Amino acid sequence: MIYLTNEILADIKMYPVIAAIRDVDEVDAALSRNIKCVFLLTGSILNIKYVVHCIKKAHKRAFVHLDLLEGISKDGEGTKYIVEEVRPDGIITTRSNLALSARSMGMFTIQRVFILDSLAVDTAVKTISHVEPDAVEVLPGVLTKSLKRIVQKVRTPVVAGGLIETPEEVKQALASGAVAISTTRKSLWDMNT
At 56, which CATH number? Predict the structure, then answer.
């Protein structure tokens, strides 16, 4: 499992702009770009397996946001279904119990945290230390001061996401210590070239 984790992290670092998809109709646009990873912030029990299959068939990595899937229980059984039946490369979640469940099943896990104030930074550091995800996604990704604090306090790779809209913001997030950024902004998906 460590080999696979290292392989996924290497892909994230080599292609630091990650396509975040809010509508399954946007998958084709992502697959035509020079990206390696796709964060699925949408989907349902009826289409997620097919969407993940299409992404993997295009030799890209699919990460499913468990909290945003429709028709899937937000518990260990729902996580088990995604891991065993859908087979994404990784999962994303804000819920510690789902992250721990996915990790126990050998799944690459991204813990998503929202930074609203300095207390949220401290809470995020504690959560990351407890869950020990393979990576953490910090939102909003334009808070470079908070990104730096989290990067300095945890050994977990950090992905910046949310409100990143310009090439300068991508560069600032990466300069702040993030290994990658996730964005729904299609104009930024070509920055990996």
Answer: 3.20.20.70
Residue 91 bridge partners (DSSP): 64, 109
Q: Which two tokens stand for residue 36?
A: 């390696």
- Whose structure tokens read 């229980």? 73
List of E strands, 12-139: 17-21, 37-40, 61-65, 90-93, 108-114, 135-139
What is the number of structural domains in the chain? 1
Distance of alpha carbon 128 from the chain centroid: 14
State the average pLDDT for the chain.
96
Residue 2 confidence class, pLDDT cut points 50, 70, 90: low
pLDDT single digits (tens) 97-119:
999 999 999 999 999 999 999 99
Alpha helices in 15-93 (DSSP H): 27-31, 48-57, 76-81
Pair 3, 22: CB distance under 8 Å: no
Cα separations (Å) of 140 from 24, 39, 82, 87, 123? Answer: 23, 15, 27, 28, 15
How big is the chain, counted in residues? Answer: 193
Domain hosting residue 14, numbered range: 2-192
Mean pLDDT value of segment 12-22:
98
- Read off the pLDDT of residues 127-154 as tens digits, 9 standing for 90 and up: 999 999 999 999 999 999 999 999 999 9
